[in-house]
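Sequence only, no structure available. Ideas?
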Amino acid sequence: MTDIIATEPIGYGKGRNKAGLCAVLLAVICVLQLAACGRQDASVDQTWQVYYVSSAETKVEQHARNKIAGTQEEQLQELLGYLSEEPSKLEYKAPLAMGFQVLGVFQEEGTLRLDMDAAYLELPVTTEVLVRAAIVRTLTQLEGVSHVSITVEGNQLYDGMGRPVGLMSADQFIDNDGNEINTYELARVKLYFANEEGSGLIAAYREKYYSTSMQLERFVVEELIAGPSAQAEGLCASVNPNTKIINITTRDGICYVNLDESFLTVVNNVPTEVSVYAIVNSLVELSNINKVQILVNGEVPASFSTSTFERNLDIVTTLEK
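Reply:
I predicted one. Tokens follow.
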């Protein structure tokens, strides 16, 4: 579509000199260049990045789709249409056309909730995660929508570990080089949670699908922060659930875990020493890690007895659960 710019006619008197005419022409050229840039930017905004499940159901693929609708309600319907549209070629699958139906869509305060029918629960675990990723990454492009939730016939959705799936944001599903979301793999890791007294640790195995875009070290720490599943008796959170991960890197067998100050706030009567070894013992279970250094806002806390920690099984009351 060509932009038409209407201007008032410009007259030139007989007495205008050549320099003045050049100045006017230069100004007109600048205006036209700016208009061209405006058209280019507008064209970029005329597409959605819609996510679909690959035909092999191993990853999520990103495809550009035209943005036609005007109001937010119309845009929502447009995106839902794209997510439900069966492709002409079997190169990918529409996430909302995989054997279940959307019973309703509800919006309030920056959140969209999609209520699915019971057939949604029949999706394989990995496929269900990919469907969620595609839906969330697509719908959070709507202005004012930061989170998406999914319910099944009005009931809470649970993941493969039996944990409730709450509000989901786009950054929970990590991009791979900006073009696609990586595949998901099943990880079996040993995590150390606190006992009911908060005085020691109990080792527990957890199996969960995670994006291979994510460091396994980060996955371990995030799962510790998330805490034990509701079905795990005798296990308590070993790390303050408000803790934020700043960054995690591993070099020469040492894992450097940089957390925010919430990590030092004691919760559930679990002392900081127990929280430290919950992280250390869990990470050292990984084959590429021998020691762990925990930082708070980039620095080793003065209260720590050492800057680098090794595995400590003396604080473990039960090896497995």
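DSSP finds five helices and 15 strands in the chain.
Hope that gets you unstuck.
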